[in-house]
Write a structure and sequence with these properties.
149 residues, Ribosomal Protein L15, Chain: K, domain 2, 3-stranded parallel β-sheet, 12% strand, Ribosomal_uL15/eL18_sf, structural constituent of ribosome, rRNA-binding, ribosomal protein
């Protein structure tokens, strides 16, 4: 079976009701629009946010300074003290192992290792970012830091 062989189930679709095509069927004369007034005219709807002439909410609220960058990357912060507790000596710290240890929710979320606390274990850290103090502590303990770029 291919995509062009698929058809909707019998009775699940209906043809569009064509109105305003004469009085022999339903929907003649006024075509469901009633008599006079805004709704009977073509283009006779007000836009989204129109509040009947009252100043709309979007115009009553102030313009706040700044903006939110849609491309901002939120990193999950992990301290070296957490790595000390959660990992064995000689372990590889990457997305999958952080998820397995319950530190992150997904193995693909961006992680930055920060330098709070002490570390004595020799770890290989493969994450997105590492602070300078964390890198110094990991390397002083005999570990290795591998960044993606």
């Amino acid at each position: 079976m291919q995509l062009h062989d698929l058809t909707p189930a019998a009775g699940s679709t209906h043809s569009r009701k064509r109105v305003g095509r004469g009085n022999s069927g339903k929907g003649g004369t006024y075509a469901g629009r009633g008599l006079n007034g805004q709704g009977s005219r073509s283009g006779g709807t007000k836009g989204a946010g129109f509040e009947g002439g009252q100043t709309p909410l979007a115009m009553r609220l102030p313009k706040l300074p700044g903006f939110k960058n849609p491309r901002r990357i939120e990193y999950t912060a992990v301290n070296v003290s957490t790595l000390e507790v959660k990992f064995e000596d000689g372990a590889v710290v990457d997305g999958a192992s952080l998820k397995a240890a319950g530190i992150t929710k997904s193995e693909f979320e961006p992680v930055k290792v920060l330098g709070d606390g002490e570390i004595t274990k020799k770890l290989t850290v493969k994450v997105d970012k590492v602070s300078a103090s964390a890198k110094a502590k990991i390397e002083a303990a005999g570990g290795k830091v591998e960044l993606p770029c």
